[in-house]
Amino acid sequence: MKTATLPPLRVEPKFRKAAEAVLRDGESLSGLMEQSLRSEVNRRRMQAEFIARGLAAREDAKRTDVYYTADEVHAELRDMLAKAKAKSKAKAKV
C-alpha cells in the first residue's frame, strides 16, 4: 500500500515546544500529529452522522406526527440505565 504525505504544518516555535513537551516515551511529533488528525477526522464523522440521524428523526416525527416530551425521553433513558445496572450487578455476582 502506498502512503501519502500531508502538507507541512507551520506553527509558532512556542507551540512546537509545548507539543514536544507532552510526547510520550517513544512517540514522535509526527506520530502525535497523525493520531490527533485521525481523532479529529473520526470526531467529525461521528458528529456528521449524529446530525444526520437527528435530521432524519425530525423528518420522521413530522411525517408520523409522533412526538415525545423531554420528560418522556428522560424517563425511558432512566429505565434503560436502571436495567443495564441491574444486568451488570447480576453478571458480577456470577
For this entry, give a set of tags.
94 residues, mainly alpha, 3 helices
Quick take:
With 94 residues, this protein is mainly α.
Q: If you compute it from the alpha carbons, what radius of gyration comes out, rounded to the nearest whole angstrom? A: 23 Å
Q: Unreliable segments (pLDDT under 50, ≥5 consecutive)?
A: none
Distance between the ends: 47 Å
In oligomeric terms, what are we looking at?
A: single chain
User: What's the helix-strand series?
Assistant: HHH
Given helix and strand content, the structural type is mainly alpha
Globally, the shape reads extended
Mean pLDDT: 95
In percent, how helical is the residue content?
Answer: over 70%
- Major β-sheet profile: none
Strand content: under 5%
| Count of discrete structural domains | 1
The beta-strand count equals 0
Number of helical segments with 4 or more residues: 3
Account of the protein in words:
This protein has 94 residues and is mainly alpha-helical. The protein has one domain. Helix content is 73%, strand content 0%. It is built from three helices and no strands. It has helices at 13-21, 29-64, 70-93. It is extended. The N and C termini lie far apart (47 Å). The model has no long low-confidence stretch (mean pLDDT 95).
